[in-house]
Design brief:
- By secondary structure, the protein is of the alpha+beta class.
- The chain has a single domain (4-169), classed as 50s Ribosomal Protein L5, Chain: A (2-Layer Sandwich), CATH 3.30.1440.
- 24% of the residues lie in helices and 25% in strands.
- It is built from three helices and seven strands, in the order βαββαβββαβ.
- Strands 2-3-1-6-5 form a five-stranded antiparallel beta sheet, with helices on one face. Strands 4-7 form a two-stranded parallel ribbon.
- The longest helix is centred in the first third of the chain and has 15 residues, at 23-37.
């Protein structure tokens, strides 16, 4: 691509651990995300009341962390190694997002098992963007990103194959 405005890049990587009502699991999740990234995660809280699950508004149920720029690109490499650089087509959407789960954090290279934490999995969301996507988030004169400037599934897969050596396996 010769047009610099068509170049795809990693905007952000979000790591997420859902703990439900179990506060012990939530504290372990916070420790785990801090071990992996070196940054303090943010707790997520419920918005809705779901009596059958015992949830009420304001109850902490998970934690997340968002990485951007170089830190995000480096983290993507590590997290993909945990999945052996294999993703399925179902893990890509039509808007430039990739989501996958890691069942056990010890699969991530350079992360050692901590007996205080135990075995916990996490969810990874990678958001891709092109220059000019700021128009949908700016304060004045917000606009939608035009369809021709969006990132379809095929381009997301192609970007991940070229830049991160990802193999797209068969859908499971």
């Amino acid at each position: 691509m010769s047009n610099p405005m068509q170049q795809i890049r990693v905007e952000k990587v979000t790591l997420n651990i859902g703990a439900g009502k179990d506060q012990g699991k939530l504290e372990n999740g916070i420790k785990l995300l801090k071990n992996i990234t070196g940054i303090n995660p943010v707790k997520t809280f419920t918005q809705k009341r779901i009596p059958s699950w015992g949830l009420r508004p304001g109850l902490p149920i998970g934690c997340k962390i968002t990485l951007r720029n170089k830190q995000a690109a480096e983290m993507v490499k590590k997290l993909l190694e945990a999945k052996d650089n294999i993703l399925t087509e179902n893990q890509f959407d039509d808007y430039g997002n990739i989501a996958f789960g890691i069942a056990e954090y010890i699969d991530i290279p350079a992360v050692k098992y901590d007996p205080k934490i135990g075995i916990i999995g996490l969810e990874v969301c990678i958001t891709l963007q092109r220059p000019g996507f700021r128009i949908k988030r700016r304060r004045i004169k917000k606009r939608k990103v035009p369809k021709k400037h969006g990132i379809p599934k095929e381009e997301s897969i192609d970007f991940m194959q070229k830049n991160f050596n990802v193999k797209t396996g068969e859908d499971e």
